[in-house]
C-alpha cells in the first residue's frame, strides 16, 4: 500500500471504530509511562491484535498514513545527518529532531507489525527542483520547514476524522504538537518568525501555505476586532494567531513532489 492509497482510504474510516476499541486503547496509553521506550511498539502491536479480532483496514490505513509522513521526515533527516550539509553549531538540533522522527516510525511500525506499509522511495530534490538540498544549508532548511509545516497542518486536517476515537486522536495531537515545535525552531534558524504570517512560505512550495492568509474564524473577521478604541487588529496579526489545517487533497500534491 502506498501513500496515495492511504489518503483515499482514510476518508472511509469506520465511525464505529472508537466504540469497539477505545477502552482497550485508553488502558494501554495509560500504562505507557511505565513501559520502557523500546517496549512501546511491542505493546502497541499487541493492543492492535487484541482490539481487532475482525477486519483491521480502517485502523491500519490511519496508522499507515501517519507512518508514511514519518518515513519521509525520518529519511530526510537521516540523509542530512549523514552528509556535511548541517553546520556543527546546529547539528544537535537536527540530531534531536531526527531522534523524534525515529521514535514515531518505530512506534507506528510496531503497532502495525506485518501490516506496516513499505517505506517509499524518496527524491528530496523533487526531480531537480531542490538539487542542492544536501549540499546547501539554506535549501535544506527551506525543505525542513516545508516538511514540518506540512506535518503540522496535515495532522490538524485529520482531527475531525479521528474524533470517534479519543485515544487515536490524542496520539495524533501529541505528534502534531512536536511537529509544531520542530517547525518553529527551523523557522527561527532561517531567520523567520516562529509562526506563519499570511501565506508566506519563504521560498518553500506555495501549496504548503495555501489558506494561511485566512482572517475569518467561524463567522468573525478578526481584522474587524478592536485591540483598543479605534485600533484594529492587522491582517498579519490575524493570520499569525490562527494556524489553518490542510486537507488530504491539499497535502497530496506536496507529497507527490518528493515520492518516486
TrEMBL record:
UniProt superkingdom: Bacteria
One Pfam assignment: Ferritin_2
Entries under SUPFAM superfamilies matching the protein: Ferritin-like
Listed CDD domains: Ferritin_like
Name of the protein described by the UniProt record: Ferritin-like domain-containing protein
Native organism: Larkinella rosea
Amino acid at each position: 500500500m502506498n501513500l496515495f492509497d492511504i489518503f483515499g482510504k482514510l476518508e472511509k474510516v469506520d465511525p464505529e471504530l472508537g466504540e469497539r476499541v477505545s477502552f482497550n486503547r485508553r488502558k494501554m496509553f495509560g500504562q505507557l509511562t511505565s513501559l520502557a521506550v523500546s517496549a512501546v511498539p511491542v505493546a502497541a502491536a499487541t493492543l492492535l491484535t487484541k482490539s481487532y479480532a475482525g477486519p483491521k483496514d480502517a485502523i491500519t490505513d490511519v496508522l499507515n498514513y501517519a507512518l508514511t509522513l514519518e518515513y519521509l521526515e525520518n529519511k530526510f533527516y537521516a540523509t542530512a545527518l549523514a552528509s556535511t550539509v548541517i553546520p556543527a553549531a546546529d547539528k544537535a538540533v537536527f540530531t534531536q529532531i531526527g531522534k523524534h522522527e525515529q521514535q514515531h516510525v518505530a512506534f507506528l511500525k510496531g503497532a502495525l507489525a506485518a501490516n506496516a506499509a513499505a517505506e517509499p522511495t524518496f527524491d528530496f530534490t523533487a526531480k531537480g527542483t531542490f538539487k542542492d538540498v544536501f549540499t546547501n544549508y539554506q535549501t535544506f532548511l527551506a525543505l525542513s520547514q516545508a516538511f514540518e509545516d506540512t506535518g503540522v497542518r496535515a495532522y490538524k486536517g485529520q482531527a475531525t476524522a479521528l474524533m470517534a476515537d479519543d485515544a487515536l486522536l490524542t496520539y495524533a495531537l501529541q505528534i502534531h504538537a512536536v511537529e509544531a515545535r520542530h517547525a518553529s525552531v527551523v523557522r527561527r534558524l532561517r531567520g523567520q518568525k516562529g509562526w506563519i504570517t499570511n501565506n508566506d512560505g519563504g521560498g518553500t512550495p506555495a501549496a504548503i501555505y495555501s489558506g494561511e492568509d485566512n482572517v475569518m474564524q467561524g463567522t468573525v473577521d478578526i481584522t474587524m476586532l478592536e485591540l483598543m478604541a479605534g485600533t484594529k487588529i492587522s491582517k498579519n496579526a490575524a493570520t499569525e494567531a490562527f494556524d489553518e489545517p490542510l486537507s488530504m487533497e491539499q497535502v497530496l500534491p506536496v507529497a507527490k513532489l518528493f515520492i518516486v
